[in-house]
Amino acid sequence: MRIRTAGWWKATSAALVLGLSVAACGRGEPAEEVVEPQPVRTDAAAPQFDSPTLAAVKRRGRLNCGVHEGLVGFAYTDNRGQWRGFDADFCRALAAAVLGNPNAVRFVPLTTSQRFEALRSGRIDVLWRSTSWTLAREAEEGVRFAGINYYDGQGFLVRRALDLASAVELNGARICVQRDSTSELNVADWFRARGIAYRPVVTASQDAAREAYAREDCDAFSADVSALAAARTLLGNPEQHAILPEVISKEPLGPAVRAGDEAWTSIVRWTLNGLILAEELGVTRENAGQLAEASRDPTMRRLLGVEGDVGPMIGLSKDWIKRAIEAEGNYGEIFARNIGADSSLDLARGLNAQWNARPGGLIYALPIR
Predict the structure, then answer these.
(1) What is the CATH number of domain 154-249?
(2) What is the pTM of this model?
């Protein structure tokens, strides 16, 4: 058996290509040029992690945080004029992460119609105001959402005296709802899809809708379930009102920032994820310092800044999340204190339980490494 050498195969291939070229020329046809594909090469370096918003916040020494004008459990002022609530605590945690001081926050109360313009104009650095993440808002409002800190949905608050078991029994009912909100659109979609007649009672604000409901100008008040729970606590006899079982929409609530500063979006996103991961790992306001010294868990050590440089990667200190946790606690602590079991709202964790809880929820921290 004759063994063909590599040189033989190369010579044969070259002769074959030459023969084909000559034959083509003999027919008066131009020889086709064979172009070998070249590997794509790029020398572009990764962009620097540079945030104009972070620079402005550090320069002024204060975070400007947009919040609701007054929503029990989420953002409201107590009898000493101090801002309290679920959203307000996330503002303070972000200030602690970025500036090392949870009190370096200027709270800016905003109406629904003001909130996105306040971001675009630079009046606020972050909007933490019970705002649903939707496609249209990112496409048309010049904002970007940095994550989800509360999974909500829209429902209906009614008087128990009406003896209603389901929202489908609201045929012909007057429904109080806020103007120019996703709530108004969701109500219209839900009733139309089911062929149920209703009469909208549209108000300028959520507070106005609650007040109209309290005056019995309508039969039901529709808004996010969390807002309905808050509104019920402000009514004369809260126990005389019930939230119907139907949830007619998905309302993923979370912090928004203005478009164009991707680095700042990441800072807000990873601060939120750090607080979520802290709960998953059992890191609390009380034990964060002790665990930073004693834990051998690599994930926990990265989170608390003992090893790795995840903080400096995004322009912050090594212990940025430890500062946030020690300021306001982990996600679960913030939830329980303001809207959960330790609050007047007493909202169940439900979808807002950790992914690995029993029963599990949708709260899931992205990997910090």
Answers:
(1) 3.40.190.10
(2) 0.84
